[in-house]
Amino acid sequence: MKPLFALLFLVFIFVGCVTEHDDGVVTLAGRAVLMDSTGAIRTDCSGVTVTADGTKFTATTDITGAWQIDGLPNGEYDICATKAGFGT
Fold first, then answer.
1. Cα angle 82-20-67, degrees, rounded to a multiple of 5
2. Angle at the Cα of 77 (from 73 to 83), degrees rounded to 5?
3. d(Cα 40, Cα 34) in Å, to the nearest integer?
4. Is pTM, for the whole model, over 0.85?
């Protein structure tokens, strides 16, 4: 019997919230949504690592998928997300 593998997908909805502070840094926040291969949204969206690409700034999602990166220097960034066992 061949093993059956279900690919789980990582989908992001950036309910973007960018707050600029007086000292030239920003707070970037959003929400991650995890879906399985059938398109069903998972109830536990915790443990996703969100990174401002090319920096040391990261955040980890809570159970609702919420994340926030504080102290990011003002600028343009690509936001990357990873979680073991998930593809994009």
1. 25
2. 110
3. 8
4. no
